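seq as requested:
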Amino acid sequence: MAGISLVGDKIYGPDDLLYLEFIEHGWTADVAAKLLLPRQALHCKAIDLRPAGLDFAFEAPMPGDLRAFCRDHGLLA
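struct tokens:
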């Protein structure tokens, strides 16, 4: 979805050229300064594959660094 950045995503960062900069120069102080996290901020709390015919259901707590980021940015109640 265009125009909606994902925190820490090297492709969908705030600058369209950021990914190319990362590919050419790697993780630099400039790249780090433009992104709020050094990784993607995607997390799946739970997934149930049983409706798809697979006998798997998983749950995972939010990682500490992501929880701290959300807390520090007012994203957690």
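The first helix runs from residue 18 to 25.
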